[in-house]
Amino acid sequence: MDRNVIFSPEDDQAFEAMCCSIAKEKYADYNAQQYGRSGQKQWGIDIKATDRRHNNEKVVIQCKFKHDPPKFSSTRAKVERKAITDEIEKELNQALNAPGFDFEVFIYSANIPNDKDIEDFAAALEETCGKKIIVWSWDSIQKDILHHPRLTRLYSESKNRLGVEVIDQDFIDGLNEAKHEPSVFHFYTGIQAKKEQWHGILNHWDAPRDCFPDIESQIDFLFSKPYRESKVVAVVYGEGGSGKSTVLRRMAIHAVQNEKPYVVWWVEDLNAFLEFDANSIQSAHKQKHLVIIEDWYRNVGERGKDTTQAKDFFTWLAHCDHVLVLIGDRRKDGFYKDYVFNNKYFKLTGSEHHDILKHMASVSPIFKGILGQFQDNANLINHSSLFVILYIIANISQENATNSQVDIGDIDARFKSIVRKKLSSLESMPEYRGLGRAIHLCAKIYADEYISYFAFSEKALLLTAQYFGKNEEIIDRVESAGEYPIEAKSIFYIKSTY
């Protein structure tokens, strides 16, 4: 086995998250969850899971990340083994005394080498305590990761980890614990860096949409049926910037916060889903799963065509009676049209824009002055893109123009003027010349709805900027600063693959 295939976590939090992902795959339990938070008494337990593949045994896992892991091969091997076995016994005893729940399997997981003496110790301990005692070494962890395609995607150095995410309590806890102050401005202008759009949902900056209760009841109803032939629960559609992704994100977070009896999968890249994640869902047939596909049209290419991705997806779905699908699209003529239950299509239109702006004013009073000028013109509100409206309001507000009269004029022209100003500002900076034009090129490609899921690597962006601006040092400037200038960060974002 090539040890370089799997990247090693840098700290105990990353190691614990990795172990939780492994537990989900090994035990087909996507309710496996990290237990407690740093600083809380955890009773020797970091992760709780249920082995849904074998008799629903209750499993607890203690994770120990070693910054200087033992080698078990030097003159210190005996001392190192004693330290590990003492730690296993100590953590097991704490777990045995944990109040409120019982378990059948105790796992000690650590980034240590395989060792026969430690395995023998665990076997002997098993005899005395009446529980299964298992040791996950770094070698066994790597084997598990390479055995499961989804884990390989998440933890292999050669794979892109973007495109598919499980939305669960650990995901929400990670957002809450992030050392990041979310920005109302970033949320309303569509910036997705540092998961701003998810933070906005948690902060209830999104306005309630009329379709939400109907979709929720439809999901609950279909999951209550023992058999369902049509598995697309609904399609939320509308023009670009109408708020489809926001509605779908709210649905995902709402399901977790209200402990809905199904697992939520957020899919941005259907190809990655089919290659690495679909089999995991199919094998986890003892749980219900809701697959949310954010942008159908970007994933399947040409509108309405019988694309390979669409055919493969619905072929897979036909074998999954425990799965429902919720789709976001710009129109409602996708390949899915024969699979939508009860013809449930929900179009997002300008009729809700007034209420959304009212909600926006309640969220951030700083917007009120400009919002009033928009709200006085119902025709302007109802016939413009919601995203464009919010983007303009947020940008004007950020410029501290809330107390002055603003000549909105042609709203599309105003939007283009703001973006043009940002791009021109970048191009006027000699040290970053070319970056504005590179971003504009990416935007033109992304805006083409006939192009499927689009990702432009950071290196490709910087090389393009270097070419456009004849700016040989732009890559070094960005890398040495560790970030992009604020003028760039306000109009695009980089998604890390790690």
Describe the structure in brief.
By secondary structure, the protein is of the alpha/beta class. It has helices spanning 12-26, 77-96, 116-129, 138-147, 149-155, 169-177, 184-188, 196-202, 212-224, 244-257, 270-283, 296-300, 308-318, 353-363, 368-375, 378-382, 386-398, 411-427, 435-446, 458-469, 474-481, 486-489, and strands at 33-34, 47-51, 57-64, 105-110, 132-136, 164-167, 232-237, 263-267, 289-293, 323-329, 345-347.
As residue ranges, the low-confidence spans are none
What is the annotated CATH architecture of the largest domain?
Answer: 3-Layer(aba) Sandwich
What's the CATH C level of the largest domain? Alpha Beta
Helix content bin: 40-55%
